[in-house]
Amino acid sequence: MSVPAARVTVRVAVQSPRRLLRDTLAVCLAVRPEITVIGKVAEPDDIFALCELRHPDVVILDAGVRLGEMAARAHTLLRRFPELNVIVTYREATERELAAACRAGVASLLPESHGLAAVLALVKRSKGRHARQAEGGLTDRELEIIVLTGSGHSVPEIAALLRISPLTVENIKRRVYAKLDVSSNVHAVARAASFGLLDQRAAPAARRRPPPDGGTTVLTLVSGRPGPALDQVVTALIASRLPFVLVRIPGRVADTHWARWHRGPLVAALVDPGPKDWPVVAELGIPAVLVHSSPLDPPELAEALACGASALVAADRVDAHFLSVLRMVGQGYLVVDSSPMRPLIGAVRARWDERATGGLELPELTARESDILRSLALGHSIRQTGRALGIAPKTVENVQTRLFRKLGVRNRSGALAVADAFGLLPAQAPSESRLRPRAQAPAQPRLRVRAEVPAEVPVLPPKGFPSPEGFPSLAGSDWRS
Q: Does residue 4 carry a pLDDT above 50?
């Protein structure tokens, strides 16, 4: 049996100092099945490190009105990566700048006025490659570790999600640190965020199946509480000659032969399920049909939908509705009865109106919280941040706690990932003059300075503090009463 080759895609890196253009271009390219966006950076100098890490086929550079400067960088980039296809977009340029770009080896010069269609045409001309790992770059596993670390997961949590040992996670992290030239989790996440690597949100836990072709058969996974409702579901499946698997003891099923080899849609039919019946939905990444014997309250209905239920069927309507609902869910539809949904929709609408009064805005950070966030992006520890800002480490911890609460995270790596998504991180490295740790000044001997008093102003000694020259005896002075 021959193994099909991996899909050939064109790997693209995007550079633009304008975040709106950078993110929009990356999103428009990423939706194309033949294109993979491997990262995006703001500064032109960062594109070299991104190419070393991810080895793109195409680099899109935004020159704006500085085509001459970008031509020199493109020349250096092509000398280091001769097989790279460099596309330079510009807003306006002189004939001299266009000639310089051509001499630099830029084969694709594109005015911004030509739009996205022209960019796509130039990218599609490039030759893609099979999914193989280039030497010296980040592997897919290393990229998964970075993304999960940026999501705030600890080492044991990452190990459980990827089904590897914590020791393996630590070893992969060391390799990532070496490739990114960093020394900590926080600095690695900040570096990855500057390269746009955190935007590649791959869910390692849930393996979503591709949408059905229409001619495939639905395989039903039946689980739940034994009783008349479960018997009705099994009887309906047998009568319709549809394949199904009856799970009597809930547990892990991802490695079973039917879960691995079935090529059609897979749907779970949960009959009056308990807490142990729901994990199979998240494990296989499949929709579920909930068959319930008793009416569901709005909180129970909301919890069922949140756990992955795509349809609700009452037990007394199994014979009439279950098979048709099963086919609809197998095609990707959400099927619910309007009667139990009305109270839930009303509650959601009321809750939405409450939240709408406050508005959905970006978190407002104070100047001190912004300083702390910039220091985190530089990979500084709490002590280094305190020295750089001239405050106590305990104050840094308190401000950092408030910052985590505003961003809805629980650690420094998660704060950097969320801040990058909100656009709160600077496009380039912050000024070192403000965040540079202050050098410790050499200790100077304490000088005792005597107060200078003009001769024409007479000074009378206060009562009770006699001194040789009329000055009071002060603690820490050289005077003796």
A: no
Element (H, E) at 279: helix 279-284
428 or 265, which is more confident:
265
CATH of domain 369-435: 1.10.10.10
pLDDT at 450 over 70: no
Contact 301, 341 (CB under 8 A): yes
In whole angstroms, give the CA distance from residue 181 to residue 184: 10
Whether 169 has a pLDDT exceeding 60, the answer reads yes
Dig out the tokens for 109 from the structure: 């010069």
C-alpha span between 58 and 124 (Å, rounded): 10
Structural fold of domain 10-125? Rossmann fold (3.40.50)
Predicted TM-score of the model (pTM): 0.50
The rounded percent of the chain whose pLDDT value lies above 90 is: 15
Helix (H) or strand (E) holding 389: helix 382-389
Domain 219-350 has CATH 3.40.50.2300: yes
DSSP line for 33-84: TTEEEEEEESSTTHHHHHHHHH--SEEEEEEET-HHHHHHHHHHHHHH-TT-
Residue ranges covered by each domain of the chain: 10-125, 140-199, 219-350, 369-435
